[in-house]
Amino acid sequence: MTHLIATFFYVGHLRPAPGTWGSLAALPAAWVIYVLTGPWGLVCGILASYGLGVWATGVETRGKDNHDPSEIVIDEVAGQWIALLPVAFGAAANGVSITALWPGWIVAFVLFRLFDITKWGPVGWADRMHGPTGVMLDDVIAGVFAAVGVAGLAALAHMT
Questions:
Q1: 77-96 pLDDT, tens per residue?
Q2: Rounded to whole angstroms, what are the CA distances from 125 to 16, 19, 53, 63, 130?
Q3: C-alpha to C-alpha distance for 27 and 29, rounded to whole angstroms
Q4: Of the candidates 90, 96, 111, which has an alpha carbon nearest to the alpha carbon of residue 39?
Q5: Of 75 and 159, which is predicted with more confidence?
Q6: What is the sign, positive or negative, of the torsion defined by CA atoms of 36, 40, 46, 51?
Q7: Where do the TM regions start and end (predicted)?
Q8: 42-76 burial by CB neighbour count: b if 16+ within 10 A, else e?
Q9: If we measure between CA atoms, which residue out of 134, 45, 138 comes closest to residue 84?
Q10: Model confidence over 21-52: pLDDT tens digits?
Q11: What Rg value do the Cα atoms of the chain yield, rounded?
């Protein structure tokens, strides 16, 4: 069960770039959650993925030298969903389909991957924590940075 969660239904075993595959797999999952439950359901999904991710990562890495194996991508799922929050709440607030805001999906994906890969500032700090909390937290921070970028770029796009 922990391997299923940590690898997000084995997506983490795809090569190359399992983190990018995990982020891509998070997109249709976010759409399903949003359609079924709305933006607050996505928030609940983020909280659940974080909690389950810390637990599953702890079990999967216990006693191993590598604290952040590449096949663990539940952290990318949580971070990618955070990056999508401005899109989800924007669609709900304006009564439009979340897929109508497709540029926001692309920006959320690109910015999240950028912050996750570069490990800029606090993202790198969290990554160096070692342990399940660090594995999850760096992607949460990258997701928050990406969400701020998505909201800022959306504001700029709608002002013009």
A1: 999 999 999 999 999 999 99
A2: 25, 19, 19, 23, 10
A3: 5
A4: 90
A5: 75
A6: negative
A7: 31-52, 98-115, 136-157
A8: bbebbeebbebbbbbbbebbeeeeebbbebbbbbb
A9: 45
A10: 999 999 999 999 999 999 999 999 999 999 99
A11: 15
Helix (H, G, I), strand (E, B) or coil at 13: helix
Q: The tokens of 100 are what?
A: 């109508």
Closest CA to 25 of 68, 74, 71: 74
Q: Return d(Cα 26, Cα 76) in angstroms, integer.
A: 8
What are the tokens at 109? 């994906």
Q: Write the secondary structure of 71-101 as one string of H (helix), E (strand) and C (coil).
A: CCCHHHHHHHHHHHHHHHHHHHHHCCCHHHH
Phi and psi of 66, rounded to 5°? -85, 115
Q: Which two tokens stand for residue 134?
A: 């660090």
pLDDT number for residue 127: 87
Q: Is the dihedral of CA 20, 24, 29, 35 positive or negative?
A: positive
How confident is the model over 90-113, as pLDDT tens digits?
Answer: 999 999 999 999 999 999 999 999
Closest CA to 25 of 66, 75, 60, 70: 75
This prediction's pTM: 0.94
